# Entry
Amino acid sequence: MSAPFSISADFIAEHNARLEGATMEDYHALKRALARRGIDTEALVGAVAAFGVAIPTWGVGTGGTRFARFPGPGEPRNVFEKIDDCAVIQQLARATPTISPHLPWDKVDDYAALRERAKAHGLAFDAVNSNTFQDQPGQELSYKFGSLSHTDKAVRDQAVAHNIECVEIGRKLGSKALTVWISDGSNFAGQSSLTKALDRYLDAMREIVAALPADWRVFLEHKLYEPGFYSTVISDWGTSFAAAQELGPKAHCLVDLGHHAPNVNIEQIVARLVRFQKLAGFHFNDSKYGDDDLDSGSVEPFRLFLVFNELIDAQRRKAEGFAPAYMIDQSHNVTDPIESLMQSAIELQRAYAQALIVDRAALEAAQAANDALGAHLELKRAFTTDVSPLLALARLRAGGAIAPIAAYRACEYRAQKAKERPTVAGTSAGIV
Ligand code: LRH
Ligand code: MN
# Structure
């Protein structure tokens, strides 16, 4: 049995050798342009290299919708192979040093072995995600009518027990946070008591918070709708914030970019959660209509930049309690998940770098002078700066590929995995 295919450092070095000259030329041109704006590009390269976002294990397999899922060749068949694919994303794009697992999708018998596999690839685990939005084979009580807010105490207890089990598993993996998204809601007016449902949720969450280790946090993830199409128990940042206030200092609010009504000012929600020291972090993705889970920066890159503009503003102000967890949450229905995740990580780095080059003194002066256009153009100037050369240089210096997707396609990793991982027959429905 030959060793699983992996991409060699020599292959990446040969790939880079062909592109390095042009990249350095572009980098020096950018460096000169930014120097005229008083910006130290070398410091930027360092900051970008230090930026990291977590890969969702459920994102490395082909995603789907309620209508269908069309698995591609060489799909990862278990969480170990998912971690191997996460390693390729990190090896080439150098922006994703952590993984966010989902339980029970990633359940194994030996979590030390799982942690070791990740460690061998230089990867660590970020927040673990619980799942009380599906019924598992052999599960005693159904979550059809909810979980942590269910009318039946026995169902709530089952959901609390699952979340506490996720914390135990997370401890074995080295995680420090639990993300709780519940699908609890209703499809008809009158179907559930809007107030009692929230109170049941808060009671159940108090038990979960009480079971957290001292250095852990719990991330409450709000979502406007789906699968509840009339009401959702934790439907918006306001409810999530109030719940996190009630639940105490370990509870924070996670912002999934796709979980808002169209045109909601998400960057202002971020600014508010920072101000009130309740920003847990993010599930980055993009969307045009609903919770589309599209690739980050692929629909509204300016909106993504504006979110990072608020994050850099907070970082620069050393905002109290500011420690956001950056994670991706996407569904790759028509692309190679590895390619989408690499490009998404790069688009997040891009928004981060562009937010770092905003002339904050000029912006604040324009804001103070109510120079609306002047202030806006300070942001546009940063957003319209092509920082690609410094992102590429950060990858090159970190041992990654100057052009990750070109390198990935050239090494034929997917074709190699298609040989090693027999195709999963037939199509299915659902997000994973
Ligand atoms: C819910 C959600 C949540 C995950 C799931 C995979 O829409 O964003 O974060 O648990 O997707
Ligand atoms: Mn999410």
